[in-house]
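User: Sequence recovery, please. Input:
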């Protein structure tokens, strides 16, 4: 019997709409002073304006992965204000955050567009970081597991089995996010994580 594949613990931060180029430099310089423990995969998600700057600031030997907070599914075209997966990769990204709750709530991100972006990321040899999570009203009526299962099933629907293995799934219950969120308990998280594992296993 073979032992299960060792998986790193992913630890990272999204800068959201924060940091000038000078502030990005300072953050990276300080980040590089901390040793990375064995088994940890660090990553940072700067705004578009700082992607190439952070790429150039990180040493070639740095274990820190660089990602973008969003990217479009189209190869190129008349999509004002967007960047493509190809452009994000060219600026240094190896990781693409997709479907964050703020993108879903404020910018019309849907399960379908998450699926398209996930497939586009894979097509450009980028790692999709798919965000899933239920709002409080769904949690309160006991629908968290089904809600997240559907989100993830659709997100993976454009991928082949071998592609699913390249995906990272981030479970972030919306009611737990931010300074006014409520920290979830292990009992609240565990059933949803089990469902996520079931969906990924079924589609891999």
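Assistant: Recovered sequence (204 residues):
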């Amino acid at each position: 019997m073979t032992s299960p594949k060792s998986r790193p613990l992913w630890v990272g931060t999204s800068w959201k709409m924060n940091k000038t180029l000078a502030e990005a430099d300072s953050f990276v310089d300080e980040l590089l002073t901390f040793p990375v423990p064995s088994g940890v995969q660090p990553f940072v998600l700067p705004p578009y304006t700082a992607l190439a700057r952070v790429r150039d600031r990180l040493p070639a030997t740095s274990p820190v992965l660089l990602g973008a907070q969003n990217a479009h599914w189209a190869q190129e075209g008349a999509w004002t204000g967007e960047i493509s997966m190809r452009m994000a990769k060219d600026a240094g990204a190896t990781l693409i955050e997709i479907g964050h709750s703020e993108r879903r709530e404020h910018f019309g991100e849907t399960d379908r567009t998450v699926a398209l972006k996930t497939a586009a990321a894979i097509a450009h040899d980028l790692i999709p970081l798919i965000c899933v999570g239920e709002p409080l009203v769904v949690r309160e009526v006991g629908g968290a597991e089904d809600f997240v299962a559907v989100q993830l099933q659709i997100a993976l629907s454009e991928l082949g089995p071998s592609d699913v293995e390249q995906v990272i799934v981030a479970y972030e219950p919306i009611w737990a996010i931010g300074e006014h969120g409520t920290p979830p308990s292990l009992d609240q998280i565990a059933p949803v994580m089990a469902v996520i594992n079931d969906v990924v296993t079924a589609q891999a």
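The chain has a mean pLDDT of 95.
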